[in-house]
Specification:
The protein contains 2 helices and 5 strands. With about 80 residues, it is of the alpha+beta class. The chain has one domain. The chain has a 3-stranded antiparallel β-sheet with strand order 3-2-4, covered by helices on one side. The longest helix has 15 residues. The model has no long low-confidence stretch (mean pLDDT about 90).
Length: about 80
Amino acid sequence: MKNRDNHTEEYVHLYIALRRRKENQDGQERCFRQIIRDEVTDLNIIKQRIKKVGGVWRTHKTINKRCVKTAVKEVQKLRIEV
């Protein structure tokens, strides 16, 4: 089995939580991403991560699906260059 065959889903959606400097004068910008496998569980996971940092956050669900194969290739390229 090769690394490119390890993923089971072809396309996935993400939750993206953004902490903007504009709305949080005291802190830096932050971004959390969570792959959605189970809507309720993954939303709770991202909410828990947000609680630890605090501040004003915006949480979004991606409209367009992300291709897992493309993401795996990009990560592999980044790891090779380092």
